[in-house]
Amino acid sequence: MKLIGPFKQIVTLANLPLRGKLSDEQLEIIPDGGILVKDGTILKTGNFSALKAEFSEIEIEEIKGEQVCLPAFTDSHTHICFGGNRANDFALRNAGKTYLEIAESGGGIWSSVLHTRKATEDELLQTVLERINFLIALGITTIEIKSGYGLDVENELKMLRVIKKAQSFTKATLVPTCLSAHLKPKDFTGSSEEYLEYIIDEILPKIKAENLAKRVDIFIEKSAFLPEESRNFLLKAKEIGFEITVHADQFTSGSSRIAVEVGAKSADHLEATIDEDIEFLAKSNTVATALPGASLGLGEKFTPARKILDAGGILAIASDWNPGSAPMGNLITQASILATFEKLSTAEVLAGITFRSAFALNLEDRGILENGKKADFITFKTDNFQNILYHQGSLKAEHIFIDGEKV
Questions:
Q1: What are the Amidohydrolase-related domain coordinates in residue numbering (predicted)?
Q2: Which residue from 96, 381, 396, 401 puts its CA 20 to 30 A from 253's CA?
Q3: Can you list the domains of the chain with their CATH numbers?
């Protein structure tokens, strides 16, 4: 058992609702606080001096200087296992080329597929670990990672095996997701519907046999998979025993409604979601995940986060870090910018990158600093928690604790 502190402020995020809007006045802030930890779990939070007096013989890990403590962050949507680079795509987009024109000229997702197929497991492992360490340094200790740049049995399994192997090299929690339904590969001779059957029949059973992922995702869009074939695919994946999530409403509306109807854990993107679908989504337990990095990378509008919260929805915020549309990877910068454009309170942003995003991954044991939760927390060298978003990512995490141990 160990007491960690003192912290100038502990922002616990305790006693906040899972859904709907939040004000900063609802935040529980413990001044001069400490966190009592045992076996990777939080036992108690409170005034540091009072805890020190109550547990007089306890080991103390002293935190020097003024530090604000928060639950560690969760990035619930990334594509950080990939080969190659698509800087040329970004340059072409900024020069006025369309997404379709870039894809037709050899760029786009298919470019990443070719580079990822070419990469060895060791090469992919090295680069994914570098990206994981970058995220940990930002204060992110739970990271979802998708496949989706293999698009055949051999290479989808290669990606997911790399993600599984990466878990043995990091203390962060990695959550693998099968995104074989990213798009129909150019070298698949059948229809989109036949490719989805190929995933169900050939890829998912092997993933299940090797315990490589428990989640399945699909990109529902005109350039990827159509709504009805996607619905059938998701229901079959669910029948096999997978949790499901959806790339929804990125460029056209309607697929977030499918996500709700099939019981998806989250609907991610939502830049094109219309008002009636916001109401439908907000009344469900499907998490609405905003991906501001994609809006910044593509020059598209942001997810209507304010409307989702006002309607009572569960809003998570994730980075969508990928080599094409969202290459930044800095969740705090993205969330801060989203807050500016969508008028989100600090409490709403912090909830969106902690316990609400963890809920999107079916992980309800973290994201709040209270008794019984996983002892993942971070500190920033400041005297006021508001400075974290105010500096839009330039104020870096000072200390990162995973299971109560500094990493």
A1: 70-404
A2: 96
A3: 2-71+366-406 (2.30.40.10), 73-360 (3.20.20.140)
